[in-house]
Write a structure and sequence with these properties.
This protein has 835 residues and is mostly helical. Among the domains are: 133 residues, no CATH class; 52 residues, no CATH class; 159 residues; 188 residues, no CATH class. 67% of the residues lie in helices and 0% in strands. Helix 9 crosses helix 10, helix 23 packs across helix 26 and helix 29 crosses helix 33. It is elongated, with a radius of gyration of 43 Å. It comes from Teladorsagia circumcincta. GO terms for molecular function: protein kinase regulator activity. One of its GO terms (cellular component) is cytosol. This is HEAT repeat protein.
Length: 835
């Protein structure tokens, strides 16, 4: 093979010098060797014309055949030797067929080691071998491979590709000096006549010899479904509809179900699926005339039902195009029949089971996975806008996620998770295999008299090194093997437990994530999912990433993607602040303090600020910060605006960590956080606060969380700022909020406390505050109760001057309504005076 590429005289002489030395040729001159080289090249290795010498010397041939049987492990040598043997034997002989058969199934040359070592000369030999394999194949060989080549020709769209293909064909056919234009013309003719998928050419019949061979194969190929599909398609394409041969193929294919067997599905490639689609289309459109209109082969309908839902998108696309062509001819008859089959086979589980087999049998099922398996279904259901459907979905989500024991997941040790991530049969805790130091020095104590101390230390070190080498090589002692088996058994128990816990949590969390992404309003109403489950589970080594995905769904509601990537920055930063065990890889390199400062800066730029010109806003901000700390002690409620309700809900876990007394963050970050609250929550930010209470009111919840929020808000009616008191009353003016809390709350003290505070506010010295309080009192359908007597006296001795004044007016009005309570009021007043 090296001779054939030796173009220069120097190269050929150099090669022949080696040959001469091997043959004991003495004093061979350069001119003589050159002459011999030219003769060898012309007679045996020229790719342009055949030489006279076809047979090898008997001894050499015998040696080559011995090498041929043993050279399979060396692909490049196998290629060269196979080419030499094919060139030295006549096509059709037993030896030629023997080489041909062995080469036809040999794939060693495609291995990584062969490809990496392949030179240009080796590639030339590979080309020559491939050419001879195609041109000199035995007559009895199946034409199934030719159908594969046919498919490759059909996708050669460009002139360059077709010319390249035909150049090879021209060489095989001894076409001399074929020009590109001539080859292009031939290529167009070949493609139009035999391989064009767009229109039928003139050549419909196969050569007689090939056709007879194909029919023989057709009768014997039933056990190979994929070959049966390809061969049936080829025969249907080469025969006219209505002929006996066409009907024979049609009848056999119409009842053939081998392609739906597990073995066929596991071996089916995308090209095989394409052939299956084409065959199904021809079977439907070219039914025999005797077949009644509207009746279709059940196997074809079932096949199309599977192919329309095939995991690979290209197969689905091609199936859809085939379906369009069928409907254009068959119209509603076929649509009705196919819809009935799809419904039936989906309901009975056939479609699902078949497609699962396809995914499980392929090496890379991830390439078939459609992202967001829950998302599309839930988005569609929510988009129906039926409250009953939405409520049922949320009820299912809340019930499922409530089954998770958050504390148990958080307590899972990291070591157990690492064991779970370690593949079955591999030992994670290799520390148990460490060699015992006492075992290493066991014999040394008895031999201490025979060696010096230095020699003993050297031998101990040598034994340590030998032990470590054996450990790395996997050579274990009997004791170590026993320990390893016990440890593997322990790890298997842990792995099975972790797998069970992960599978249970992964489905529930992913359902919740998809539902949050589908129904934003419902998600923000149910913030307990965020604070009770999502945030704590981010601290679980097992499901931290799943919980982070749920958090990102909430984040996407509050902070849609923008050009400044604030959404991604906040998602990563908040997870780091709250101590999540999973982090976003691309954002984790930046120091946390730096990321926090950037986040707060961007947030402050977004929060709109309206200057008030007084100090009321500062007090209001500090008051509301304290209010949030108490109101959000267990859970949180919802806000909405630029940096308001929804945004503060998502930011709350980070804000709470930063402002907590045990915060590890510096004063600059704490001050920036307070500035954010100052910018976002001020006296002109009433809309967000009104929406907070309004949304809380829509939940119709009268539990401790809502009562705590209302009590904290009512406490600010004692504030010196009249603006703050007025705004607080407006916040509490959500329809029937206080009425529901007073009548239905389990906290009996809250009802009297609420009535007293609102009643005292009706007598506020500021007219606007008093008017707002009166509107709230009558809108809530409140009435004075006798139990209000003693709390009113407590207000009369308040430390705040305007509260004492307001309480005095309220007490006078109370006495007019309940004059019989005057003695009790006087007794309480005397008691307070003595204190």
């Amino acid at each position: 093979m090296n001779y054939s590429v030796a173009k220069s005289s120097e190269q050929r002489v150099s090669i022949l010098e080696g040959v001469a030395r091997c043959a004991d040729a003495k004093n061979a001159s350069s001119s003589a060797l050159e002459k011999v080289a030219n003769g060898v090249i012309l007679k045996t290795t020229s790719p342009d014309k055949e030489g006279e010498m076809k047979a090898l010397p008997a001894e050499s041939e015998k040696q080559l055949w011995q090498e041929f049987d043993a050279v399979l492990k060396e692909p490049l040598q196998f290629v060269a030797l196979s080419l030499l043997l094919l060139k030295s034997t006549n096509a059709g002989t037993a030896n030629h067929s023997k080489v041909w058969e062995k080469v036809s199934v040999y794939d060693g040359v495609l291995k990584d080691r062969s490809l990496s070592a392949m030179s240009t000369d080796d590639a030339f030999a590979w080309i020559d071998l491939t050419e001879k394999m195609i041109l000199e194949r035995p007559i009895s060989n199946s034409l199934y491979a030719a159908h594969r080549c046919h498919m490759n020709y059909s996708v050669a769209k460009s002139s360059e590709q077709r010319v390249s293909i035909l150049e090879g064909v021209a060489r095989c056919a001894d076409a001399k000096n074929a020009s590109s234009s001539a080859l292009e013309k031939v290529a167009n003719g070949v493609i139009l006549k035999t391989t064009s998928p767009d229109k039928e050419g003139e050549m419909k019949a196969l050569p007689a010899e090939s056709e007879r061979q194909l029919w023989q194969e057709f009768d014997a190929v039933l056990k190979e479904p994929l070959q049966f599909v390809a061969l049936s398609l080829l025969l249907l394409k080469s025969t006219n509809a209505g002929t006996a041969n066409h009907s024979k193929v049609w009848e056999k294919v119409s009842v053939y179900d081998g392609v739906l067997k597990d073995r066929s599905l596991s071996a089916m490639s995308t090209d095989d699926a394409f052939a299956w689609i084409d065959l199904t289309e021809k079977m439907i459109l070219e039914r025999p005339i005797s077949n009644s209109p509207g009746s279709y082969p059940p196997m074809c309908l079932k096949s199309l039902a599977i192919l329309l839902f095939w995991p690979h998108w290209q197969v689905r696309k091609r199936s859809s195009l085939a379906l369009e062509r069928i409907l254009a001819v068959e119209e509603s008859h076929f649509a009705e029949a196919l819809a009935d089959v799809i419904f039936t086979e989906t309901i009975n589980g056939f479609v699902d089971q078949t497609l699962r087999k396809v995914m499980q049998c392929h090496q890379d099922p991830q390439s078939f996975t459609v992202p967001g398996e829950w998302d599309n279904a839930l988005i569609t259901l929510v988009a129906l806008n039926f409250p009953s459907v939405r409520d049922a979905l949320w009820s299912h989500i809340e019930k499922n996620i409530a089954e998770l024991d958050v504390g148990e997941y958080v307590r899972i040790p990291e070591k157990h998770v690492l064991i779970y991530q370690c593949s079955e049969g591999h030992l994670y805790n290799t520390e148990v295999l460490e060699f015992d130091e006492g075992e290493i020095t066991y014999n040394m104590r008895r031999e201490n008299k025979a060696y010096s101390f230095r020699d003993q230390l050297a031998e101990i070190q040598l034994r340590r090194e030998l032990a470590e080498k054996k450990r790395k090589e996997g050579k274990l002692t009997a004791a170590q093997k026993q320990v390893m088996e016990k440890e593997l058994a322990k790890e298997k128990v842990i792995r099975d437990e972790m797998r069970q816990m992960y599978v249970a949590a992964e489905v529930k969390i992913d359902e919740a994530r998809a539902m949050v992404a589908a129904d934003h309003l419902g998600a923000m109403i149910r913030t307990n999912l965020l604070f009770d489950y999502c945030i704590p589970l981010t601290r679980s080594h097992l499901v931290s990433k799943n919980a982070a995905d749920l958090f990102f769904a909430y984040r996407d509601i509050a902070f849609p993607h923008t050009e400044d990537y604030l959404d991604e920055l906040l998602g990563s930063t908040i997870l780091r602040v709250i101590g999540a065990h999973w982090h976003v890889a691309n954002w984790h390199d930046e120091p946390l303090n730096s990321a926090l400062q950037r986040s707060l800066q961007l947030l402050n730029e977004r929060a709109f600020v309206v200057e008030t010109g007084d100090d009321v806003r500062q007090k209001f901000i500090r008051s509301l910060v304290n209010m949030f700390s108490s109101a959000f002690q267990d859970d949180s409620f919802i806000f909405e605006d630029i940096v308001g309700a929804t945004q503060l809900t998502v930011l709350y876990p980070m804000i709470r960590e930063i402002l907590s007394p045990s915060s590890r963050f510096n004063d600059d970050i704490r001050e920036a956080t307070l500035t954010l609250l100052q910018n976002a929550i001020h006296r002109r930010f009433l809309k967000a606060l009104l929406q907070l209470v309004s949304l809380a009111n829509e939940t119709e919840d009268t539990g401790p969380r809502v009562v705590s929020l209302a009590r904290s808000t009512l406490a600010y009616l004692d504030n010196d700022s009249c603006d703050l008191r007025e705004n607080v009353i407006k916040v509490l003016s959500a329809p029937q909020l206080l009425t529901r809390l007073v009548l239905s709350s389990d906290d009996s003290r809250f009802a009297i406390e609420c009535l007293v505070r609102v009643f005292v506010a009706r007598f506020d010295p500021v007219e606007a505050v008093a008017e707002q309080a009166s509107q709230l009192w009558y809108a809530s359908v409140f009435h004075m109760r006798p139990e209000m007597a003693e709390p009113l006296i407590d207000k009369c001795v308040s430390e705040v001057a305007f509260v004492r004044e307001s309480a005095a007016g309220a007490t006078a009005a109370f006495v007019q309504e309940f004059p019989d309570k005057m003695p009790a009021l006087l007794d309480k007043l005397e008691e307070v005076r003595l204190i």
